[in-house]
Amino acid sequence: MTGYLTRRFLGMVAVLFALTAVIYAVFYVAPGDPAQLACGLKCSPVQVHQLRGQLGLDEPVYLQYAHFLKGLFAGRDFSAGAGVLHCDAPCLGISYRTNEQVTDMILNRLPVTASLALGAMVIWLLLGIGSGLLSVLRRGRLTERLLTSLTLAGTAVPVFIIGLLLLLLFCAYLQWLPFPTYVGLSQDPQQWFWGLLLPWTSLALLESAKYARLTRSSMLETLAEDHIRTFRAYGVSERRLVTRHALRGALAPVIALSALDLGTMFGSAVLTETLFGLPGLGKLIVSSVNILDLPVVVGVTLVTGFSVVLANAVADVLYAAADRRVVLT
Amino acid sequence: MSEHLVEVSGLTVEFPVADSFVRAVDGLDFTLEAGQALGIVGESGSGKSTVAFGLLGLHRGTGARVRGSVRVAGVDVVDADDTELRRVRGGLAAMVFQDPLSALDPYHPVGDQIAEVYRVHRKVTRRAARARAVEVLDRVGIPDAARRARSRPHEFSGGMRQRALIAMALACEPRLLIADEPTTALDVTVQAQILDLLHELRAETGAGLLLVTHDLGVVAGSVDQVLVMKDGRAVERGPVAEVLGTPRETYTRELLAAVPRVDAPVAVHVHPGGGSTAEDDGVLLEAVDLRREFGRRGATVAAVDGVSLTVRAGETLGVVGESGSGKTTLGRMLVRLLDPTGGQLRYRGRDIGTLGEKALRPLRHELQMVFQDPASSLNPRRSIGESIADPLRAAGELDDRRIRARVGELLERVGLDPDWYHRYPHEFSGGQRQRVGIARALAPEPRLIVCDEPVSALDVTTQAQVVELLGQLQRDLGLSLVFIAHDLAVVRQVSDRVAVMRSGAVVEHGTADEVYDSPQHPYTKGLLSAVPVLDPTEAAARRDARRAVVPG
Amino acid sequence: MSGTAGLLAGETAQVSPAAGASQVWRRLRSRRAALAGAIVLAALVVIALTAPLLTAIEGQDPTTYHDTLVNSASGGVPIGSFGGVSADHWLGVEPGTGRDVFARLVYGAQISLLVAVGSTVVQVLIGVVVGLTAGLGNRFLDQLLSSTTDVMLALPSLVFAIALMAVVPSGFPRPVLLMLVIGLLGWGGTARVVRAQTLTLKELNYVAAARLGGSSRWRIARRELLPSIAAPVITYAALLLPTNVVSEAGLSFLGVGVKPPTSSWGQMLSSATTWFRADPAYVLLPALMLFATTLAFTVVGDAVRTALDPRAASRIKVGTKGADVSDARAATGPQAATVAAPVRRAGANADNRGEA
Q1: Among the four A117, A133, A187, B154, which has the fewest Cβ within 10 Å?
Q2: Interface predicted TM-score (ipTM)
Q3: For chain C, what is the mean pLDDT?
Q4: CA angle, corner B35, sides to B31 and B40, nearest 5?
């Protein structure tokens, strides 16, 4: 087990490095001229040239990447006009527009996205696993057919449609809820909850459809296995078959997927955040893209990438731990 | 009370297929008295397992239609309500399943699983149930049962798992044990141990036994009565000695005739180069200290560990061994599907063990293989004609008409209709598919064919036909065969010379008669004594002999 | 019988003559939901293809502003009921600009389908090539390609797509760029599925038999492997299509997709967020179109999966129990595959030890 964990960890670190290289290559090397982007369209060639020097973009690519990596581990300095801007240890660069450290900008936004993702996960797990199990227990009845159709339709709806419809219904038509605004949990837990209720629901409704289907298929597959038949042949009741012998095996992929989804959520909550105006990571990248603030774009991409890689590793380990049959070598 | 332990009358079971029903069991009647043992024997599709499942009402809720009456220990299984049925299951009648790995829950310790079953039927504390689990595990011969009870199924060997399943069946002291092919997944030596165990337990507990199997040798030593089934009906039923000794029905006689026997060779071999000759020019393929290691990151396991053998032109070399002996790996190396990691492989004097794929290609067609599982050895998406024609096309034969003609010839040669070129594998039975596989191996006109368990997936009558076909082809075409199998009887039937493998090495080799009639190595002796025989008296004698050797 | 459903059925016929193409088609047709989905898709394709004709019949175009039709005093709410529905403007006009909604919806179908199908093609092509090469190649090549796939799957695709769409010079044709970005970021799942399938198939005896018959590696890939890989790939592609429709709409919703004046449903929904109180009709129409498209793709994809599933045939033997399993299995689409893959890898390790 420790051997497996070590290897998994090393593999994760390798993927993370590859990720920084790919992202760096794509944004700083490949397409256009970052200095031109940083400067804006109205810059003169002289200004662009100057800026290139300031940003260290006139160095060879591998040196730039090395500086970038060094910044990540030890921090680095940027010359800005006359003065010098210092960027602390996990340095992802400095915003072209506001001269803020990207790391700080991301850290400020993180609680919003985390609140959104975690809250939504609680709802989608409850709803998804619950209705998945229900449709297994009500096999062959109307409930099952209804749930199957509903979840199939649910997987097809984009989050911004659900969100818009919920807004339309609860904020505009029924006027039960105010338009969602984000208030920090430490500031006012109650407002935090009400402000996030609609975003949570929109995100979770769709995700729960996926989880319901996964739970159902996984459960049915487990119930069809031979060892279930053994215990049935020994007089064990159907309910006990489900709770003691099928649930653990069936939920392993569900747990693994939810770890993965939680990681992905840091990046894919963009749509929800944009729709509801929540100041999270997604909102940050969209607004940075619009003003071509490259360091912020790269920073957010990296952080969300890291979270996906991390989640992947956690999912693997969780699955392996839950399923004793997977041989860890 | 003169009630039977099991009373089945007019049992009919039908499974839904598409829009209609297919009858798996058709009006079956039989009874089993307390403490007696009944063997239900039949080939695949005879409905024997369906009957076993029916005794526990396991068809309930599957969509199958069950008619007739089934009474087990006084309970009407067909009409009983769910609570009553659960009382029968495991409490009055307990089932031992075929595949012990998948039959146990991989997530829970074996002892807990047995304890759980015990607590379903007895109102006892958790601790008492655990103690009972250890007790029955100990009873079935699991060493250090108290500790092993905490292990999960995958930490057990195949034989141990089957013992654990039997322990579970014993837990609630049922009056009837139902064993559904309990030894099919096991090696012959382990099979003997499990059958002996069942026999002992029956004598000790007085439980009745219903043994379902395809293997006539298995019933010979284990039951009092035999019921032969075919197509869902009873063909013949009677005391085991009578049915196996003086069968009344033609089908039973056919079945018995098809069973290969380890004590008397059936076929007489005529081969040009074999026998007593020591001429070196007869040698076609020679392996010298051949090795194959698997694994990476340092921890390697030698699947084949220094095997030397020769195959002469026109002869059949039998390779026999239990699972894990490395015989399949060896077979694949002989035709270079696997690369040896050491030693030499000489084909007609030339070392082909280290040849690259390109250099090997001109020789490929001379070394062919017939595989075990007919289902995976033919591409389900290509017609059998195309599969057989493939080597011809790969060799650059372009004339479509000539290819068709040649494929037709080959099909005819293996006993199939030459017009079946456009049929697909799923339209054929297992035996027919194996014939197609043989035709494909013949297509490139090989000199040597390695047959890896070519008949082990087939019913006994089909088995006999395919073995017969291979012998015929060998005589007609002067082929060399390497016949790999776990079944000692089949190997004796076809082989001129035999090599016995164990843990990657050949422990004994010689002519078939030498090896079988006067085995030298203790392992070979053990193997041979474990082979089930058809004569019940002989079977009983052998069991006593085994018990004398291994006490307890 | 036109459109995607027809195309899929046609491919099915080549894929599995063994199972009987007609049988697969019958299974497809017997599902009423699938039939309805196929009809919706066919209608969408017709609408997209005949967009200029349809707008000509209406007498409008998607880009002309109609200042007179919106109430400039209220900020641009369309005059009239249901967002300004009239004989001239069948589905009303866009708030703010007064552009014709029907025309914009119809042209939006073009973009939606074009990008979805195009990016799926890119994903499948790359995925099959990478997966097949990894599955058949030596250990080094496999390791390299599998790691690349892992990195691809680790990229936060939406964030990455947003960033990419932003840095690529604006001269590049946007629909093509969308196809490429969605396609290049989304082939990881297909590659994993194909690699896993290839590894499984490679061990089958008929592949060994083909080697013994003297077939080259390439010949084996073409004749023995590809036909068997086609079924899972088609299934997977059918699940990718609705995802790609949503991706396009999402990027356009975020303002980095197609650029005005080209119309896209996602873009319409984006501008609808500011108007949803005053003009609900403007929210509902593109939402409905988008929902109908993804739902139709999903339903048809689901049916294709069931029809191609070899277990669907075997359910007959085990009765109702098996039917449930094959129905539900893989129901979770692309993402489930990414979870299953590492697990399967671990399982393969256990099985790879050969006979010993």
Answers
A1: A187
A2: 0.82
A3: 75
A4: 45
